[in-house]
Amino acid sequence: MNRYDKLSQSVVAIMFLLLIGFVLVLNLILPKREFSEAENRKLEQLPAFSFYSFISGKFTSNFEKFITDQFVARDVWVGVKSNADQAIGKKDSNGVYLGKDGYLIQKFAEMKKGELEEKIQTIITFHTATPELNKYVILAPTAVSVLQSKLPKYVSENRELDALHTVKTSLISSIRYVDVYPALSSHQNESIYYKTDHHWTSKGAYYAYQQLGREMGFKPMKEEEFEIRTVTEDFYGSLYSKSGFRNLHSDSIDLYVPKNEGKVTVDYVEEKHSANSMYMMGNVKKKDKYTVFFNGNHSLIQIKTSHREGKKLLVVKDSYANSFVPFLTSHFSEIYMVDLRYYEGDVAALARQHQIHDMLILYNMNTFIEDPSINHLTNKEG
Fold first, then answer.
1. pLDDT level of residue 10 (50, 70, 90 thresholds)
2. Number of other CB atoms surrounding residue 325 within 10 Å
């Protein structure tokens, strides 16, 4: 090797080290993001250090998540990685499968031993403490279970269905488990999940609403009783951003608006803001167009409808409920939506305060597994 080659290698090595150093400095000095609009989720923050968390491994695990979430230009690197994966024929990237017909399908979450049972017990404990509340539970299966025909050929995935069965058979009989899997599975050839996002579509939510009506005893509206309005055809959702897969067709978002639409008032309680619509139409021009429903997630939303003599309903929910709850406004006088990821109050006290007798717990199964907030259900005031 001549002197010129050695010098060239040294320059390349120095440039590489400088680049790494530059990236590390940026990671240290740039402000940390709390929320990823691209992935529609909260990002990991710097975990608090304690001797116990360090010994248990929790601190190390959370710190790794923090570094991964806060890495500078993370979205760009995700795209670079997925392009490289596609080039070698790989069909999954960053927890997302590239399925048939342009479907992006989120992998089912990893479950830690005992966590699912703990969440089931939380619901039972809350039910025992609030016998005056009629409880209904919908844990919506995600596309990984319902659209198995769209998965890559090498993927065999039954863990979500097994988890759903565990919940169904573990809840006590006085808690009504509303199984929406058959309703969704029977319509799997329709557009019941977005292709680029992890949510069900309004059509998917509609079929689940029909099943809830049969369980709760109200008559669901027929599809022809709605005006179906397409508000955007340019929606690229959370899985599009998370996976980095590109060259895919966009989704459209439809609103199911009753032809005999009554008036609604939507109060965003913590924000002290009111609206006369459940839809924030300006959000169809933003990146996360799914926030057209209720302007995204909030700790507590109160909806008043024109059905003044109807029942009241409490909904403890994740974002799957945002496109589902509008169907319920034709059957209840008031609906209270609580998102335990943000709500710090006493849910039982809220129900008593507003004389609510019916309660729906609605999560998608992936969020139910990943997010610990359902365990806050038994929190008490003070």
1. confident
2. 24
Widest distance between CA atoms in the chain: 91
The two tokens of residue 247 are 């060259």
Cβ-based neighbours of 362, under 8 Å, separated by 6 or more: 137, 138, 140, 315, 316, 317, 318, 320, 321, 324
d(CA 125, CA 263): 37
- The CA radius of gyration of the chain, in Å to the nearest whole number, is 23
**337 - beta bridge partners?**
301, 315
DSSP state of 176: E
The DSSP letter of residue 358 is E
Q: Who has greater pLDDT, 183 or 64? A: 183
Q: Give residue 49's pLDDT band: very low, low, confident or very high (50, 70, 90).
A: confident
Measured distance CA(50)–CA(125) in Å, rounded: 30
Q: Is 382's pLDDT higher than 60?
A: no
DSSP code of 333?
A: E
Mean pLDDT of 169-179: 98
Q: What's the sign of the alpha-carbon dihedral 211, 213, 219, 221?
A: negative
Question: pLDDT tens, 180-217?
Answer: 999 999 999 999 999 999 999 999 999 999 999 999 99
DSSP states of 199-240: SB-HHHHHHHHHHHHHHHT--PPPGGGEEEEEEEEEE--HHH
Q: For the chain, what percentages of helix, strand and coil (3-state, to nearest 5) are there?
A: 45, 20, 35
Amino acid at 170: S
**Residue 339 and residue 309 in contact, taking contact as beta carbons nearer than 8 Å:** no
pTM of the model: 0.82
Rounded distance, CA 124 to CA 175, Å?
A: 8
- For the record, the structure tokens of 347 come out as 């849910």
